[in-house]
């Protein structure tokens, strides 16, 4: 199943709070089309070293009028309603693009509700399944759970591929490109607009944390397969991983991204403060007040306090997994942790609210 991040605790700072109840459900002027792309990044290798790094990508878009939509179920999730393979709407000739990053161990389809809200309102939305760290692949890789900074590189590589793809490239307005992501995908979002990581900050925090601190433990989907000793060996003895660590503090900012929408972002204690303060594009952060994984005081509030163009929206009572797609009946039976919400929290209502908010944000910032 999916757990979605390795997290840390950060100092509390001032915040900007925007009321959560102003958003209405997003309108649906277009049917939503869905397509798939099997891209690769020839510059990087997969974790076996045998091939180019895969960039399996899901693309949502406004479909031609009359396209027949059907329900889409992926594993234990209700991933939305769309018309797979439908032609793209002919007008307008150029469309804005929003790139999408899922949480740890997840997949692009788990954010189908957000992609669908945007696509129905005239956006092309492209979500990559991050290699080694996605349930869309047959198995996980420990490296994929540790090399977080590979993710923003995936985003830039996918953007290159989309622009070169004859199906999508000619329709993308390159002056209107945005970024959105959830949990570790929230970090990915921030990295694409300039946030850098510090290995020392990460190590110092975990050295002081309690052994039982969930912020420095492996997520459960790989905890039965790997131990923290495995992590330490990987980081200190594996030659490829040691080379990866040398790039951990690099900037992966992509200047083509003009605005960013981060949902429950994580890894705040590893962020280089100056890199956060240097963000220049419009940024909106959304997180639940009851999120015990992307704790607002850990990342969202400190980032919002440092970024001049940031807005922070707190959703009362909402927990981490409410931002995943709704679950099937099987999912609600076998994966209660990620499929159940607290009393009084309606996951579908959260999706409608945040989807409408994202549409409004990108309409303002990607004009």
From TrEMBL:
Residues in the signal sequence: 1-23
Residue stretches spanning the membrane: none
One Pfam family this sequence matches: Hydrolase_4
Keywords: Hydrolase, Lipid degradation, Lipid metabolism, Signal
Gene Ontology MF term list: 1-alkyl-2-acetylglycerophosphocholine esterase activity
Domain Serine aminopeptidase S33: 97-321
GO biological process, one term: lipid catabolic process
UniProt keyword Lipid metabolism, yes or no: yes
Keyword field contains rRNA-binding: no
Name of the protein in question: Peptidase
Organism expressing this protein natively: Piscinibacter terrae
């Amino acid at each position: 199943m999916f757990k979605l991040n390795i997290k840390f605790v950060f100092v509390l700072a001032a915040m900007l709070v925007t009321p959560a109840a102003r958003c209405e459900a997003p309108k649906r002027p277009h049917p939503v089309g869905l397509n798939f792309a099997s891209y690769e990044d020839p510059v990087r290798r997969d974790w076996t070293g045998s091939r180019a790094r895969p960039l399996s990508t899901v693309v949502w878009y406004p479909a031609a009028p009359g396209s027949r939509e059907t329900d889409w179920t992926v594993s234990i999730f209700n991933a939305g309603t769309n018309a797979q393979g439908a032609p793209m709407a002919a007008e307008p000739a150029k469309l804005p693009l929003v790139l999408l990053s899922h949480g740890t161990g997840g997949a692009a389809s788990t954010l189908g509700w957000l992609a669908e809200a945007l696509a129905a309102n005239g956006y092309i939305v492209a979500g990559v399944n991050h290699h080694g760290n996605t349930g869309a692949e047959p198995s996980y890789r420990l490296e994929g759970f540790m090399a977080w900074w590979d993710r923003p590189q995936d985003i830039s590589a996918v953007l290159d591929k989309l622009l070169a793809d004859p199906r999508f490239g000619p329709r993308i307005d390159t002056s209107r490109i945005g970024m959105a992501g959830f949990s570790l995908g929230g970090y990915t979002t921030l990295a694409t607009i300039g946030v850098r990581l510090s290995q020392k900050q990460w190590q110092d925090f975990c050295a002081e944390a309690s052994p039982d601190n969930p912020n420095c433990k492996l997520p459960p989907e790989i905890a039965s397969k790997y131990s923290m000793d495995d992590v330490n060996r990987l980081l200190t003895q594996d030659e490829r991983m040691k080379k990866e660590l040398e790039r951990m503090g690099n900037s992966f900012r992509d200047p083509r991204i003009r605005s960013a929408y981060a949902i429950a972002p994580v890894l705040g204690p590893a962020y280089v403060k100056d890199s956060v303060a240097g963000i220049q594009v419009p940024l909106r952060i959304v997180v639940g007040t009851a999120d015990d994984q992307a704790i607002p005081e850990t990342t969202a509030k400190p980032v919002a306090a440092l970024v001049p163009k940031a807005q922070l929206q707190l959703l009362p009572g909402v927990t981490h997994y409410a931002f995943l797609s709704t679950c099937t009946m099987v999912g609600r039976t076998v994966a209660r942790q990620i499929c159940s919400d607290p009393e009084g929290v309606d996951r579908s209502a959260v999706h409608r609210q945040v989807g409408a908010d994202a549409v409004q944000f990108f309409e303002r910032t990607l004009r």
